[in-house]
Amino acid sequence: MSEKKQAGGLQGVVAGQSAISTVGVGGIGLNYRGYDINDLAYKCTFEEVTYLLLKGHLPTQQQLDELKTLIWSKRYIPCKLKQILETLPKESHPMDIMRTVTSILGILEPETKSGQEYDISIRLISIFGPALLYWYHYSNSGIKINENTGKDSIAENFLKLYHLKSEIDPLVIKTFDVSLILYAEHDFAASTFAARVTVSTLSDFYSGITTAIGTLRGPLHGGANEAAMQYLEPLRSIPQADQFLNSRYQSKQLIMGFGHRVYKKEDPRSPIIKDFSLQLSKTQNGDPTLLAVSQHIEKRMVEEKKIYPNLDFYSASAYRQCGVPTPMFTAIFVISRMTGWGGHIIEQRSNNKLMRPVSDYTGPAKKQFVPIEMRNKANL
Ligand code: SDX
């Protein structure tokens, strides 16, 4: 048994090699396959980034066109899946719907041979939004939506299916698309690492993704964007924000959407999503009060605690101003991170080794066995 007490949570542990993204590596910021997140967010679409993460390089125009055509063709929801979605109660959490959709597709369209990772990833990325929204509209109002919205991007398809509108504000589409780029990949984040552990046993692709979804659900990880919106919702003035923060400081409770295991200063994704959330706040359907309160909380947390917002904090106000309901925030994270999870599963399988660490044993020394007829409290 080693003397040194570990920080816990595998903090600082290098758990393997990966060539997909840099997170806080030696001050070079966040890069996906070498490309800076600012270039990707401001100059690419989510479909280009999807191709980059799954194939390892940015697409040519022809490759991108082929990917878009594939996405449009993979949106359809099988009848059996629709029948199951129609049985799920409206009180279900969207993350449970995403996990269920993955499991059902793993049964209806199983992984039967090697080399299917790209196709299954695109299938899931394409169907996740339509399936979630099929369940949402059916369980809430009995409407059976047509999941096919033509040659729309993943972002526009989701927004049209949620709002049941044929026209969406271009800035809302752009903000949503940028959020998908920002959420797409982040090295050995808990959910990604969980997926890699699962497939390292030679388990199937869908099992890896259901593991990842279950892991992402927690408020210390993907669930933080929903948790942040929940506390921001009632704060409609700076004094109310101060009262909230002071009580959280006093009770030593976490403020969700802040802090990061790797970034101990700014999360490079936060200023990007904040930029779009601020742009939205200046439009007709924007919420300038939400942004003013958010910026005030950020200012105090940075100045008083030296704790910075992570991607989830301003994603909350961005999604709210896109009109998306809070319980769907983490489900959107799933659609996006499916690209990173797919890339990591491909990478893990390309040079696989069963992942099986050891613990630092802290239990009792060897004991003498006592048969049950002689056992009493004294000799247990
Ligand atoms: C994501 O890994 C990834 O890359 C994840 C992600 C991705 O893209 O996949 O980036 C997405 O999950 C972002 C993180 C979302 N989670 C939250 O916003 C939840 C709130 N954040 C905290 O739970 C925390 O910051 C963690 C879990 C994210 C990271 O914490 P660590 O590295 O385990 O550090 P810690 O909890 O030990 O905190 C160090 C100190 C503690 O104070 P002390 O006990 O030393 O006095 O900082 C404090 C913490 O209490 N602290 C916070 C805080 N975050 C850290 N205090 C109040 N509010 C916070 N949010």
Automatic annotation (TrEMBL):
Q: Which GO terms describe its biological process?
A: carbohydrate metabolic process; propionate metabolic process, methylcitrate cycle; tricarboxylic acid cycle
CDD domains under this entry?
Ec2MCS_like (cd06108)
Mention any one GO cellular component term assigned to this protein in its UniProt record: mitochondrial matrix
Q: Does the keyword Protein transport apply?
A: no
**Biological or metabolic pathway of the protein:** Carbohydrate metabolism; tricarboxylic acid cycle; isocitrate from oxaloacetate: step 1/2
The UniProt entry, under InterPro entries, shows: 2-MeCitrate/Citrate_synth_II, Citrate_synthase, Citrate_synthase_AS, Citrate_synthase_bac-typ
Asked if the Swiss-Prot or TrEMBL record annotates the protein with the keyword Transferase, the reply is yes
Read off the PROSITE patterns from this record: CITRATE_SYNTHASE (PS00480)
Taxonomy, superkingdom = Eukaryota
The Swiss-Prot or TrEMBL record annotates one GO molecular function as:
citrate synthase activity
**Pfam families the record matches:** Citrate_synt
**Keyword set for this entry?**
Transferase, Tricarboxylic acid cycle
Q: Which PANTHER family match?
A: CITRATE SYNTHASE (PTHR11739), CITRATE SYNTHASE-RELATED PROTEIN DDB_G0287281 (PTHR11739:SF25)
> What is the similarity comment for this entry?
Belongs to the citrate synthase family.
This chain's protein is named Citrate synthase
